[in-house]
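We both want to read C-alpha cells more fluently, so let's practise on a single case. Would you supply a protein for us yourself, any chain you care to pick? Would you write everything just below, so we can both look at the same thing?
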Amino acid sequence: MELLEWGGTLKIVVASDSFKGSASTFEISDYIEKGIRRVQPDAIVLKIPLADGGEGTVDAIVTATNGNYVTKEVTGPLGQKVKAKFGIINEKVAIIEMAEASGLTLIKDEERNPFKTTTFGTGELIKAALDYGVDEVVIGIGGSATNDGGAGMAQALGVSLKDRNGNEIGYGAESLEKLSMIDITKIDPRLQSTKITVLSDVTNPLCGENGASYIYGPQKGATQDDLETLDNLLRKFGNKLEREFQINLVNRQGSGAAGGLGAGLMAFCDAKIYSGIERILSYIKLEDHIKDADLVITGEGRMDNQSVNGKAPLGVAKIAKMYHLPVVAIVGSEGNQLENVYNNGIDLVLDIVNKPMTLQDAMDNVRELTANAGEKAIRAFRLGFRVNHMKEEIL
C-alpha cells in the first residue's frame, strides 16, 4: 500500500449535501470517492451523509445513528395518497421530513398551486410518530409545496378550523379566507408531553416582503399577481393564531419557513426552531469523525455568498477549522462572488461543470463530473502538501 510522504495513510472525510434534483448525499459521496481513488487508491475515505433540514434529513440522521425506518401512507400536498417514511432513533426520537408528505417533489410542475396544497399529511406523519411513544419529534421542514401556515397539519392533529357557520373549512391557503374560529379542544393530547423540534435554515417571518408568500411562493406555482393575496391569507391566519395563543408569530423569525408551517408548529405544537445543520451535525457526531482527518470535502448543489446562512457545507467547515483542516467544497454551480464562503472556512470551491453545457447536461452527467471534481480535490491537496513541504526544507 502506497504511503504518502508524511508516513501515513491519508484519511479523507466526505460530508456533502445532496445536489437537489440531481443526486442524493449518498450518491455525491460515492462519486467523490471514485475520483479520489483514481489518485489515492489506498486512502481511508469516510463518507458521512449530510442534510440541513431539507431533503435527505431522515436518511442522514438514521444512517449515522443506526436508526430504523417507518413507512406510512399519508395525504399528499394535493390530497393524493403518498408513501412517506420517517425514522426512529434511540427508540425515543422520531425524525420526520415534511417534504415526504407535503413536498414539491410529490407533484408535477404544472400542478403546483400554493392556494390548494396542504400540510395535512405532515400532521399525519407527526401523529404516526406519536404512536411510537417517542419523547421528541424532530421535523425537517425544507422543500415544501405548501403555503397554508400549517393549517392542514393542525387539522390532522385534531384542531378544528371553522367558518362563521361552524363548518370545517377545507384545505390549502385558499380556505383560510373562510376561517372564523379555532377550536383546539380535540388536539392530540400527546403533544403536551412530546418535545417538537424544527430544523430549518429559513429565517423569514410569516408575512411581508420577506415573508413566506413573497419569497417562496413563486417556486410553488404562484404568479406575481398571487403573492399579495397569499400574503394576506397568511396574515389573517397569523393574526388569529396570535390572539388564540397570545404569542408573536406574524413577524417572528422562522415563522415563514415551509409556507408558514413554522408558525403553525410553534402555535399548535409549542415547537422550537433551530438551525438545521447545527442540530444534524450534532446528531451524526461529525466532529468525532473529523478530528483525526487530513482533508475534509463537502459540497452542495449551488454555492454563493448566501451559503453562509445556515447551509450544510459551512457547518462542516466550521467544525473542520476547529482542527485546522483544509476544506474543499465540490458544488454543482458557483456564484460569481464567494468572499463570504472563503472567509468562513472553505479553502477551495470546485464547480463540477468543466466546459460550456446546459443545466440538463450537467444533471445527466453528474456522476462523472463529480468524480472528476473529486480527483481535482485530492490533486490540489497533494500539491499543497508538497509546496509546504518544499518551503519547510528551504527554511
Notes: Confidence is low (pLDDT under 50) at residues 1-7. The two ends are 31 Å apart (CA to CA).
